[in-house]
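User: structure tokens for this one?
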Amino acid sequence: MKFSVTTNDAISARCDCLVIAVHDNGRLSASASKADRASKGLVTRLLKQKDISAKPGSTLMVPAPQEMAASRLLLVGLGDKPDVDDFAAAAAAAARSLCRSPTRKAVITLAEIAVANCDPRARARLVVEALAVAAYRFDQLKSANNNNDKSGLVRVILTARRTAAAAARRGVGEAQAIANGVHLARDLGNLPGNICTPSYLARRARQLGRSHGLRVNVLDEARMKALKMGALLSVSRGSREPARLIVMEHRGGKRGEAPVVLVGKGLTFDAGGISLKPAASMDEMKYDMCGGASVFGALLAAAELKLPLNVVGIVPSSENLPDGAANKPGDIVTSMSGKTIEILNTDAEGRLILCDALSYAERYKPDTIIDIATLTGACVIALGQPATGLFVNQDDLAKELLAAGDEARDRAWQLPLWKTYQKQLKSPFADIGNIGGRSAGAITAACFLSRFTEGMRWAHLDIAGTAWKSGAGKGATGRPVPLLCRFLINRAEAR
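Assistant:
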């Protein structure tokens, strides 16, 4: 799909579909007013006849009159005084309608609409990202693709006022890079465990390095053993697939400048180990590597945007399967940090591979370190699917990430990381237990990771509720790639 921005009159543009905005008070946008005049009052009649409610997210596609250059009109409701949520809902609804239609070339005027706390750059970005989400399909593993399920949309032109055109073009460029990162994360997440193994992720990292100029280093089990990564290596013992520690570097900042380090859980399949998960929905445990997938996506976007930052992505990757050599409840392992860990539940394996990766990250002397993981079902219970769980050890970092999530429409919610929760991790036989009991499970998991980030500016994103969807629309979402990208972009702009 190709995108461009124009300041030309949208009404005269030849296209398969012209997208215009209407308001539920009967008010028309500037382009909608022009379309109404060109169609001899068609838009006004449709509103009066209640063919469209004009509430945010409502849509109506109709054939355009012969007097118009467009073949179809897509009316999109924006409510009365639209806010960012209204605009995002309208953009998403328009995108779905276009991608379900035979439209190949569309002219979209939504970004012209004034929206409170949403500038032309943000409006253009939201439209493009909505189209990317609506057009996404994962069908490369089907023997025969159903072309009727694919979007035929190949060219999109966004209109903008002359004074806003430069900002809109910038928003389009950002959105395309972020969308490419999201698509990569979704593709990796949707791959089955028999294809997407730790070795497969390592190969994809090397490919990404060659295509986008990233420096890539992959540590095998021998090198991890030499580094005394006993926690990470313990998880892979029950699998025939060897573990990998994947390191990708985007060197966009000054030499020697402290990087932002992203650490993503890359558990390519999680059966729970000896603490075996229930059979129902276990197929979804291929999504347990979505934290790692989001690191891939964020690094791709950073490279495409040529962000003037040093960004390091670290993905510890393994499988967690039951086997005679697998971890057993009660086993004690020694982490790279030297801390000993009593494994009370083998299904709390994500924190075991992450803690060694976090210790490894120290060698980069990071400005900020953020780990991303489908870590706990408890976070899903607490926040559901709308919000990612956020834990931080510094308030200013929390503000940065929360603001980035709001701006990207990829929201997070901060949960406490108080010292009082740490006592739940006490073990009579080791320095720390890998679980803290039934209560506050998401918090105690974050507390566990905090033991390995002392002295670092650190945040933890629990994406167990946001990384994928179940049910009829099952699939990876690509979250929190938009949040991470916005965080990195904002960092780059603040320099």
